[in-house]
Design brief:
The complex is a heterodimer of chains A (329) and B (343).
Chain A lengths: L1 H28 L15 H10 L6 H14 L1 E3 L6 E3 L6 E2 L4 E2 H36 L4 H15 L2 H15 L15 H35 L2 H8 L4 H29 L3 H6 L5 H10 L3 H29 L1 H5 L1
Antiparallel strand pairs in A: 1-2, 3-4
Helix pairs in contact in A: 1-12, 4-5, 4-7, 4-9, 4-12, 5-7, 6-7, 7-9, 8-9, 9-12, 11-12
Chain B lengths: L6 E14 L2 E14 L3 E5 L6 H9 L7 E9 L2 E2 L5 H7 L4 E4 L3 H4 L6 H12 L4 H14 L5 H4 L9 H13 L5 E5 L7 H18 L2 E6 L2 H7 L2 E6 L2 E7 H6 L4 H8 L44 H4 L4 E5 L2 E4 L4 H11 L5
Parallel strand pairs in B: 3-8, 3-9, 6-7, 7-8
Antiparallel strand pairs in B: 1-2, 1-4, 4-5, 9-10, 10-12, 11-12
The chains are: A mainly alpha (329), B alpha/beta (343).
Chain lengths: 329, 343
């Protein structure tokens, strides 16, 4: 098990390195002069030139890349002489649009996305797996068909549609909840839950539908395996066959999917955050894109990618924990 | 209910049907057989002949909602068809057990060999885990697994094919069942290992007095292990006789075909004689004899009887039955002409 994890971590570091290079090149591939974006309409060529030097944009690409990476690990100092500006580690850059360190912006936005993603995740896993199991156990009869029908509808509805529908009816028409106004759960738990409830539901509906279908098909497939027949031939009760023999085997692909879906959301649930005015990573990214805030764009891309890669590692480790064939090969 | 204390299993007019979108699949039709305690019955036939399905039905392992089982199955004098599934479950793995063709897929990939055997003990016995563990170790030793303590902590994929089948056999016999159904137990194994597994089965049968229903398409295996043979074709029993008679006095053209397709070193011919054609669709069984479309001798039967009437399973001698419209003298003539069996 241990060498396996070490190997996976090594691969992860390699992937992160490649990823950081791609992200960095992305920043430089944009057909705009980043230095020009640092000042407003009343910009003079002199200010642009000065800012270019200040931000190190006059340096060759590889120097810029090393500076950027150095910033993440040990921090960096922009400019020289008297007009310096310290950006302490982990420094993801400086947003000239907002006049703020990108790291600070991300640290502020991250918890919002975290609460949104994890809340929705718990909700959809509970609903999805349990209804998937009920459907599989009732394969072919009306319960199965009803669950499958509902999940098909849930799966076909786009997030923006469900989100807007909930917003319009629950909040605007029926006034069941106040208008979304994000508050930290530690400062105002009531406002937090009132704000988060609909976003959680919005995401959970889509994902629960998907996980219902996934769980059902996995369980049905596993129940047809030879070792399930063996378990029955041993005289085990259907309950033990299902819980001990079938569920664990059917779980593996669900774990994979769940890890990656959660990671994807942690990178920012763009549409949901936008509809419900949640100041999370997704909204930060969208804001940065519309404002050409390049350092913020690169940083959000990098953070989202790190989530996916780390989730991949965790999924691999879980996989090995569940399946001895992975662990021992 | 017939009570013959010498019988462990008696199957009477067993029918298994599956309702599918394409129609009703008649997988098993009116099959009857008896298995005596400690004896071996081989059920022989091609894939799709209903040999596996009939055994799964006996074990109560056909649980698909589209399957329908009718007829009678007496296990130790107790009717299993229509019995409370819970009652049948308690018999499974305890008084009747089953091993399967491919031991790799039949063992759970996520649990150790030890866990899977211990589980089999604990389902049917109220004993401590440590007691179950020592029984498992003992049984694994008995089936010839080396360094048992280490093997018990290993997973199925870490064992060789032959070892896995030994584990399956140990798991099936651990509670000392009176009946073991072995569904093609050697088909997925190397030829050298096949012989070892058959030897093991024979030894264990002697030691535990287990009756065996051996499902196979390999007549070599049959000659090795069986006391009695039931030949199945298209879901029906077509010939039923002691093993000696199947090889020396076969009565049914399908059995002749099976025997002719065994490679023989002593034979001077260089080619095997396969049976022409392919098995019938169980969705649309032929009107008359199920074997008629592939039978080379149907022209010798008058009135086109083969195409119109399925022959009854008639006694040829005291314990030998066969289905065929050919008269006994016709069969004898054909056998001597073609040198089928020992004439």
């Amino acid at each position: 098990m241990f060498p396996y994890i070490v190997r996976r971590i090594f691969v992860m570091i390699l992937m992160l390195t490649i990823l950081s290079i791609i992200t960095f090149l992305l920043f430089n591939a944009v057909p705009t002069d980043p230095a020009k974006l640092t000042c407003g309409k009343t910009c003079t060529p002199e200010i642009v030139a000065a800012n270019r030097i200040r931000l190190g944009l006059d340096q060759p690409l590889y120097v810029q890349y090393i500076e950027w990476i150095k910033g993440i690990f040990v921090g960096r100092t922009y400019g020289s002489g008297t007009a310096t500006f310290d950006c302490s580690a982990p420094c993801l850059g400086y947003s000239f649009r907002n006049g703020e360190e990108v790291t600070t912006m991300i640290v502020d936005a991250l918890p919002v996305t975290l609460y949104l993603a994890i809340g929705a995740f718990v909700l959809w896993m509970l609903i999805g797996i349990s209804s998937g199991i009920v459907a599989a156990k009732n394969h072919g009869n009306w319960k199965d068909r009803t669950i499958m029908g509902i999940s098909l509808i849930g799966y076909s509805l786009p997030v923006f549609f469900v989100g807007l529908l909930l917003l319009i009816f629950v909040i605007v028409r029926w006034n069941l909840l106040p208008y979304p106004d994000y508050a930290s759960p530690f400062e105002d738990p009531v406002a937090f839950f009132q704000t988060m409830l609909l976003p959680w539901l919005t995401l959970a509906i889509l994902y629960a539908a998907y996980y219902t279908r996934l769980t059902r098909s996995q369980m049905l497939e596993t129940m047809g395996e030879d070792y399930i027949r063996t378990a029955r031939a041993k005289g085990l009760s259907e309950r033990v066959v299902f819980r001990k023999h079938a569920f664990r085997a059917g779980l593996t692909p669900i774990v994979t999917s769940a890890g990656l879906d959660l990671a994807g959301l942690l990178g920012g649930a763009v549409i949901t955050e936008y509809i419900f005015s949640l100041p999370g990573l997704g909204r930060l990214a969208i804001g940065a894109v519309t404002e050409y805030d390049l350092p913020t764009i690169t940083a959000t891309v990098l953070v989202a990618a790190v989530f996916v890669i780390v989730a991949n590692l965790i999924v691999d480790i879980l996989y090995a924990a569940i399946d001895p064939r992975v662990r021992l090969s | 209910m017939t009570i013959d204390s010498n019988l462990i299993l008696e199957v009477k007019n067993l029918n298994v049907e599956f309702t599918t979108d394409d129609g009703i699949v008649h997988a098993v039709n009116n099959v009857s057989y008896k298995v005596e305690r400690g004896k071996t019955l081989a059920i022989v036939g091609e894939s799709g002949s209903g040999k596996s399905v009939s055994s799964l039905a006996v074990m109560g392992l056909l649980t698909a909602s589209n399957s329908k089982i009718t007829g009678e199955v007496f296990f130790n004098g107790k009717e299993l068809v229509g019995a409370d599934p819970e009652e049948v479950r308690k018999l499974r793995g305890d008084e009747m057990a089953m091993i399967f063709q491919d031991p790799l897929s039949a063992l759970h990939p996520y649990y150790t060999i030890g866990d899977q055997l211990i589980e089999a003990v604990l389902v049917h016995n109220k004993v401590k885990d440590s007691e179950a563990r020592s029984r498992a170790a003992e049984m694994l030793t008995r089936v010839g697994i080396p360094s048992v303590e280490q093997r018990m902590n290993e997973y199925p994929h870490q064992l060789s094919g032959g070892m896995r089948q030994r584990v399956m056999i140990a798991m099936a016999l651990i509670n000392g069942p009176e009946l073991l159904i072995a569904d093609e137990p050697t088909t997925a194994l190397d030829v050298t290992v096949q012989a070892q597994i058959l030897d093991l089965l024979r030894e264990l049968q002697k030691e535990f007095g287990t009756a065996i229903v051996l499902i196979t398409h390999d007549l070599g295996v049959v000659a090795d292990l069986a006391d009695e043979v039931l030949v199945m074709y298209g879901g029906s029993a077509v010939e039923h006789a002691p093993v000696r008679e199947i090889f020396y006095e076969p009565q049914m053209p399908y059995t002749w075909g099976l025997l002719a397709s065994i490679p023989q070193i002593s034979a001077k011919k260089e080619q095997l004689d396969p049976i022409p054609g392919s098995p019938p669709s169980l969705l649309n069984l032929p009107m008359g004899c199920v074997f008629a479309p592939r039978c080379t001798f149907k022209a010798q039967v008058s009135d086109d009887a083969c195409a119109n009437k399925f022959p009854d399973l008639l006694a040829v001698s005291v314990d030998h039955e066969a289905r065929c419209h050919l008269t006994e003298s016709q069969r004898t003539a054909i056998r001597s002409e073609r040198k089928i069996g020992k004439v």
